[in-house]
Write a structure and sequence with these properties.
The complex is a heterodimer of chains A (357) and B (321).
Chain A lengths: L11 E2 L19 H26 L13 H10 L5 E3 L5 H6 L4 H9 L22 H15 L6 E6 L6 H12 L4 E7 L2 E2 L2 E2 H4 L7 H5 L3 E6 L3 H17 L4 E6 L18 H4 L7 H11 L5 H24 L6 H4 L7 H12 L5
Parallel strand pairs in A: 1-7, 2-3, 3-4, 4-8, 7-8
Antiparallel strand pairs in A: 5-6
Helix pairs in contact in A: 1-2, 1-11, 1-12, 2-9, 4-12, 5-6
Chain B lengths: L1 E2 L1 H15 L3 E5 L15 H5 L4 E3 L4 H13 L3 E5 L10 H8 L2 H4 L8 E7 L14 H7 L3 E3 L4 H12 L4 E7 L8 E2 L13 E4 L4 E5 L4 H10 L4 E5 L2 E3 L3 H11 L2 E8 L4 H13 L8 E5 L10 H4 L3 H13 L1
Parallel strand pairs in B: 2-3, 2-4, 5-7, 6-7, 10-11, 10-13, 13-14
Antiparallel strand pairs in B: 1-8, 6-12, 9-11
Helix pairs in contact in B: 1-7, 3-4, 9-10
The structure holds thiamine diphosphate and magnesium ion.
Chain lengths: 357, 321
């Protein structure tokens, strides 16, 4: 006898289409117009910051940087849906969660200039530093979720990762761990179709990334990642679910990397511009603006005010990053909780003999 | 031809693939993109996707699959995009690649050339500037090479491709395009395990490799010093006789590397000089390396990597003690 013992499926959710039309049956009740406008502003600020850092990098004022252009809805919709007490574990591209959590813009800029000061107060905001080593964030996030549960806190963990990162073993190990211990964690897969030059289709033979969760016994959904309302709802629902049932959740958000991988990358080498074009009308910011405008929640003068406000925030951060200087002595102060004799000797020798002049 | 290190390496890989139909390149972005530093540029077009392979983003599997290929008749050239990400494959290297030969009394060989960019100085993100040569050398069973110029890079890579051992081939990012050199068009080998005396003098010996060779040469030249400079080229196994014969001549030794000072390759070299040549020494062996903690964010890197000030300071200390 042969009988079916398992059968899984993945659903895709879209609430707002490319023209800003809404599926009212799915519209999240708590997302009032004030919140929608706030989300819109965050997405715009995120893009403006990304553009500015790109410009500063080209001028040699900051170092390598991963732009988030085109991926604002995934990052803003999810980070905005979280409570401040929920932990967020971001990757090198997730600058918007920092902005939404209220990390001063200049800190983001200073991180890109290459100074550790940028991260000196992230934990208080329930954030970890941006993770560069692809995939390593997942198991750590599962550990944070374990810790939250163990300490009987009511908060959850949101961990981000790219489509490419789902190929790393840590991704599977983290989902597995989270499933076994029923941890309050949401994995948000920011599927932007590319891992540097490698397309999603070459990353896995799996039809969706979300379905990988099913194998680990987790709940999963795929959403239109350029639809900030769908991302918001999926995250909000998942947060409620993981906090109540404890069953971890994977959200695969379909979006697109509109620009280069990082400022060191040249995408013309491996992807034709014609592949990018169809994504332009799907722009997540444009889409929300259409919705807001057609519902009389937004107009040109509000747009102008917002742009001016963003500019002054960014100018302020730029001034601060231009002033930021290296502090070589500080490198020695936080290696251990104590100062070993041998390290003190290295430091004293450096200071006494002007190694850094 | 006059070329930089990237082109020399690209040319070496081309010759290796041409020579051996069982040789393949695999790694992240090595195909169409030609690698993030363009070391494999053009090879995808020439040899196709079966021989120049973009793998899924997973370092442990890049090395694990390479080991499987190597023990069953192929000669893989895996690339890890930056040495800082080789830690994800450390188990495959330390627990398997390094041990297959010894645990089968020589029956199973792992001919594989693992290339990866190392060291800093080019303002990259975290983990992109590591110098992990001592970690790999400490294991035993892995040959660890690191060229300092285009000529050696090509000849050493070709030599590595002809060996029956797992070779960790470290390519200093900073040197990829720093300078050009005359490099022969065809096949040639630079011997493994042989240091290169790149400067000759009488008063002291600098033993170094990789990114530190050039600054050492510059300090010696700019200050009219008389010194032997040994470019190790292969870090494991060490060319102990070249080290000892120079130190016996000059009586003073400075070991210099970019990697953190404590527990680095310098400690091994200094210990060997102490064990075998203590009575030839006029002063204690000195070491200079990066400070004894992980490579900082890029803003502070110039303060961490040994600079010419620090090299000169160490030489003075060596001469005056
Ligand atoms: C462990 C590890 N391997 C390789 C890299 C180099 N690298 C940085 S980002 C990246 C691609 C990541 O793709 P994806 O996970 O889809 O994220 P995206 O860049 O698209 O946001 C690679 C290969 C790295 N940072 N860490
Ligand atoms: Mg991606």
């Amino acid at each position: 006898m042969i009988k079916e013992v398992f059968n899984g499926s993945i659903k895709n959710m879209q609430i707002m289409d490319e023209d800003g039309n809404i599926d009212n049956s799915l519209f999240p009740k708590d997302l009032d117009s004030k919140k929608l406008i706030e989300l819109y502003k965050f997405m715009n600020l995120g893009r403006a910051v990304s553009n500015k850092l790109l410009a500063l990098q080209r001028l040699g004022k900051v170092a390598t940087f991963a732009p988030l252009n085109g991926e604002e809805a995934v990052q803003a919709g999810s980070a905005y849906a979280a409570e401040e007490s929920d932990f967020i574990v971001p990757t090198f591209r997730n600058h918007l969660p920092f902005i939404i959590r209220g990390v001063p813009l200049e800190n983001l800029f200073i991180a890109v200039k290459g100074y550790e000061e940028a991260y000196s107060s992230v934990l208080q905001k329930h954030l970890t530093p941006e993770v560069i080593a692809v995939g390593s964030q997942y198991t750590q996030a599962a550990g944070i979720a374990f810790s939250m549960k163990y300490q009987k806190y009511k908060n959850a963990v949101i961990v981000y990762g790219g489509d490419g990162s789902t190929s790393e073993g840590d991704f599977y190990e983290a989902m597995n761990f989270a499933g076994v211990f029923n941890l309050p964690i949401i994995f948000i897969i920011e599927n932007n179709e590319w891992a540097i030059s490698v397309p999603r289709s070459k990353q896995t033979a799996s039809k969706t990334l979300a379905q990988k969760a099913v194998a680990a016994g987790l709940d999963a959904i795929q959403v239109d990642g350029n639809d900030v309302i769908a991302v918001y709802k999926a995250t909000k629902d998942a947060l409620d679910s993981v906090k109540n049932s404890g069953k971890p959740f994977v959200i695969e958000a379909l979006t697109y990397r509109m620009g280069m991988h990082t400022t060191s990358d040249d995408p013309t080498k491996y992807r034709p511009e014609s592949e990018v074009d169809p994504w332009k009308p799907k722009d997540p910011i444009l889409r929300l603006r259409k919705y807001l405008a057609s519902n009389k929640l937004w107009n040109d003068s509000m747009e102008e005010d917002m742009q001016n406000q963003n500019k002054s925030l960014i100018d302020n951060a730029t001034a601060k990053v231009n002033e930021a200087k290296a502090n070589p002595k500080a490198m020695f102060d936080n290696v251990y909780s104590f100062m070993p004799e041998t390290l003190k000797e290295e430091e004293d020798e450096a200071l006494k003999n002007n190694f850094w002049q | 031809m006059i070329t930089n290190m990237v082109t020399a390496l690209n040319n070496a890989l081309d010759l290796c693939l041409e020579e051996n139909s069982k040789a393949i390149i695999l790694g992240e972005d090595v195909g169409k993109d030609g690698g993030v530093f363009r070391v494999t540029d053009g090879l995808f077009d020439k040899y196709g996707p079966n021989r120049v392979i973009d793998t899924p983003l997973a370092e442990s599997s890049i090395i694990g699959t390479s080991i499987g290929m190597a023990l069953s008749g192929m000669h893989p050239f895996p690339e890890i995009q930056f040495a800082g990400f080789s830690y994800l494959a450390f188990n495959q290297l330390a627990a398997h690649a390094a041990r297959y030969r010894s645990r089968t009394r020589g029956n199973i060989k792992i001919p594989m050339v693992l290339r990866m960019p190392v060291s800093g100085g080019v303002k990259t993100l975290e983990h992109h500037s590591e110098s992990p040569e001592a970690l790999f050398s400490h294991i035993g069973g892995l040959v660890v090479m690191e060229p300092s110029n285009p000529y050696d890079a090509k000849g050493m890579l070709i030599k590595a491709s002809h060996m029956d051992d797992p070779v960790i081939f470290l390519e200093p990012t900073k040197l990829y395009r720093l300078f050009k050199q005359e490099v022969p068009e065809g096949m040639y080998e630079v011997p493994a395990g042989k240091a290169n005396l790149v400067n000759e003098g009488d008063d002291f010996t600098i033993i170094t490799y990789g990114t530190m060779v050039r600054p050492a040469q510059e300090v010696v030249k700019e200050n009219n010093l008389s010194a032997d400079i040994l470019d190790l080229r292969t870090i494991n196994p060490l060319d102990e006789s070249a080290i000892l014969s120079s130190v016996r001549k000059t009586g003073r030794a400075l070991v210099l590397h970019e990697a953190p000072l404590s527990f680095g390759a310098g400690a091994e070299i200094a210990a060997r000089i102490g064990e075998k040549s203590l009575y030839d020494l006029k002063s204690p062996v000195m070491r200079l390396g990066g400070f004894s903690f992980p490579y900082p964010f890029s803003g502070d890197e110039d303060y961490w990597v040994p600079n010419k000030n620090r090299i000169l300071y160490s030489i003075k200390k060596l001469m005056n003690s």
